[in-house]
UniProtKB/TrEMBL annotation:
<protein>
    <submittedName>
        <fullName>Lead, cadmium, zinc and mercury transporting P-type ATPase</fullName>
    </submittedName>
</protein>
<comment type="similarity">
    <text>Belongs to the cation transport ATPase (P-type) (TC 3.A.3) family. Type IB subfamily.</text>
</comment>
Length: 288
């Protein structure tokens, strides 16, 4: 039978939009001394707006680069993709052979051309170097930058900006007041990560992490002796959520993340991470 305090706590939690799927993990939550947040959609709103489009090839105007990129991105669920699509005012052409490259970008055929929208890390892998002051400036401003390849050549870049959630500041202050180490794990570039980390006073951050590396990073922090709670939303986050002592899916996340998680936060609010840890402490204190 389920002890009454736990049943009451679980019901209370559910009322606030904290769905506990794994009771053993909920019990472990009181011991958590490191929280790893994913950036996009948890610490930030995950609502990207396009701020700049840079042409790196005279043959392509910025509007054309944006439209071709948007065509590919209509098939992607990534928050960056949604930002790019909503920046186009006119009509968006159709895409064929769409394929996502997890943690790196997306590719498809648009108007007979092969169009790729990719991360800075992907460019480095392919040894393509955008040596352009305009790009350097976008990075230094802490923006998210993706590159557009058309028929295999680098033709442009799109810069986007997201907003830090108001609740993130309070959540981090409360966790740090309890001596809990606060970290951020993101696939986005180092400069954006640094900017968010400094804004929020995070203890550390790990940027440009590929999807398959996320679980490994969680393991490393556990190996340092930490009991780890991890938040995530994407399909790519599922292994890391499974590895964490407490895996927390944010409500707007994909089915895979939600099915793997120990706890689901319906409101995608970082303060609810604090609430789960506090509720676990309160629940299991009453039982001793
Ligand atoms: P996170 O979940 O931490 O934001 P992801 O693994 O989803 O990171 O993505 C990492 C990086 O890969 C993004 O910052 C971006 O550069 C690139 N990327 C992934 N998907 C797309 C996409 N659909 N369009 C453009 N870039 C993408
Ligand atoms: Mg993600």
């Amino acid at each position: 039978a389920v002890p009454l305090v736990i049943a009451v706590s679980t019901a209370l939690a559910a009322k606030r939009g904290l769905l506990i799927r794994n009771r053993a993990a909920f019990e472990r939550a009181r011991l958590v001394n490191a929280v790893i947040f994913d950036k996009t959609g948890t610490l930030t709103k995950g609502e990207f707006g396009v701020t700049d489009v840079v042409s790196l090839d005279e043959a392509f105007k910025p509007e054309e680069i944006l439209t071709l990129a948007a065509a590919v991105e209509t098939n992607s669920e990534h928050p960056i993709a949604r930002g790019i699509v909503s920046a186009v005012k006119g009509e968006i052409p159709a895409v064929k052979n769409f394929r996502a490259i997890p943690g790196k970008g997306a590719v498809g055929r648009v108007e007979g051309r092969k169009v790729m929208v990719v991360s800075p890390g992907y460019l480095r892998e392919k040894r393509l170097r955008p040596s352009d002051e305009r790009i350097e400036k976008l990075f230094s401003q802490g923006k998210t930058v993706v590159f557009v390849l058309i028929d295999g050549k680098l033709r442009g870049a799109i810069a986007l900006a997201d907003l830090i959630r108001e609740e993130s500041r309070e959540a981090l202050a409360r966790l740090k007041a309890r001596g809990i180490r606060c970290l951020m794990l993101t696939g986005d570039n180092r400069q954006v990560a640094k900017w968010v980390a400094e804004e929020l006073g995070l203890d550390d951050y790990i940027a440009e992490v590929l999807p398959h590396e996320k679980a490994k990073k969680v393991k490393e922090i556990q190996a340092q002796g930490f009991t780890v709670a991890m938040t995530g939303d994407g399909v790519n986050d599922a292994p890391a959520l499974a590895q964490a002592d407490v895996g927390i899916a944010i409500g707007a996340g994909t089915d895979v993340a939600v099915e793997t998680a120990d706890v689901i936060l319906v409101r995608s609010n970082p303060l609810d991470v604090v609430a789960i840890l506090e509720l676990s402490r309160a629940t299991y204190r009453k039982m001793v």
